[in-house]
From TrEMBL:
It comes from Talaromyces amestolkiae. This is BTB domain-containing protein. Residues 59-83 are annotated as: Disordered. It comes from the Eukaryota.
Length: 348
């Protein structure tokens, strides 16, 4: 946080000028490198569907509740390295009062007992630094435009990747309630894109990877139907215990997903394992009565079970947590897919 005069704020060159008469310069230090090349361009008008992947690492900011707290000094105070960092940064000219109306993070910064605030209240200009996260400058720009009621300059459709980044930023800035109407509309559309991708066929890893993102978005935006559907796809397609590498989803939800996945796989695999054991026991008895028939019958049954489980042989039967298997691979148990509703958002 650096005190500036209004003249300095309004004459400063910025990448995105949301209010030429604003009193705040917001500097996003160390932005996401994939989007750093868009500096100086109105990135909100970039085609949001130009990305070839829907996947995004939605890292949850650690300790976000402490940032901007009333008893904690602002974490974006200017340091000796700020000049060097600004070379790769993205800057926005804004109206501070507008930010305070919609974001508790900015309200706590502007109203806290800091020396810089005394200057800001007197001379009316300030520069803020966002150091904490490598955020997408396009996602931040769209959120800032909504805060300034510039609705004509925001895209009508946003893909799953960009929406996930916006939800992370909105939660960190403590303005997700104000933005929830826009985010929910975009979320419904983005999650329907995810369903269409599955319908047209994508690999299992992509289903799970994007399913984690859909679960995160629908959980934060309280989209009950979409949360149930996203968790259903995760449970049915995951070939290993579900793990969120960025810890953006609550551990309780991830644990519930894994418990349900193992339960459903057990309903499919354990009866097949029992059938294999029964065939083995039967073959020992029947071999004495009719060796040729019993061996042929056992071989045919063994091939069928091996085909269902995808085994190269019958000596390596799958065990909990059934790594390498998912519900989708067995067409014989389609009734499980039809009757399984997914998890309920009301439980989390």
């Amino acid at each position: 946080m650096t005190p500036l005069s209004l003249q300095e704020v309004r004459s400063m060159l910025v990448d995105h000028d949301l209010d030429p008469h604003g009193n705040t310069i917001l500097v996003l230090v160390n932005p996401e490198t994939d989007h750093a090349k868009h500096n100086g361009i109105d990135s909100a008008k970039i085609d949001v569907h130009s990305s070839s992947s829907m996947v995004v690492c939605c890292e949850q900011p650690s300790g976000s509740e402490e940032h901007g707290g009333e008893g904690v000094p602002p974490s974006n105070t200017q340091t000796a390295d700020s000049e060097k960092a600004e070379a790769a940064s993205v800057s926005y000219r804004l109206k501070g009062q507008q930010l305070c109306l919609v974001s508790r993070y900015f309200k706590n910064l502007f109203t806290g007992p800091w020396f810089e605030n005394a200057h800001f209240q007197r001379d009316g200009g300030i520069r803020l630094y966002l150091w904490e996260e490598k955020w997408d400058p396009v996602a931040l720009l769209i959120l800032l435009r909504i805060m300034h009621h510039q609705l004509c300059d925001i895209p009508e459709i946003i893909d799953l990747s960009l929406l996930g980044k916006m939800v992370v930023i909105a939660e960190y800035l403590k303005c997700i309630d104000f933005l929830s109407g826009f985010l929910r509309l975009w979320g419904l559309d983005a999650l329907s894109q995810y369903r269409r991708h599955i319908a047209f066929g994508i690999d299992d890893d992509t289903v799970v990877r994007d399913g984690l993102l859909c679960t995160f978005i629908s959980w934060k935006l309280r989209l009950r139907g979409e949360f149930r559907l996203a968790t259903k796809f995760l449970i049915l397609w995951a070939q290993a215990p579900i793990h969120d590498p960025r810890a953006s989803i609550d551990e309780y939800i991830v644990g519930a997903l894994n418990i349900e996945r193992e339960r459903m796989l057990g309903m499919v695999i354990e009866p097949l394992k029992t059938e294999i054991r029964n065939l083995a026991r039967y073959s020992l008895y029947a071999l004495q009565q009719n060796p040729r028939t019993s061996l042929l019958g056992f071989a045919a049954s063994a091939r069928y079970v091996r085909m269902l489980l995808g085994l190269s042989d019958l000596s390596n039967l799958p065990r909990v947590p059934y790594t390498g298997y998912n519900i989708i691979f067995v067409d014989r148990f389609d009734h499980l897919l039809e009757n399984f509703p997914g998890l309920s958002l009301d439980d989390f």
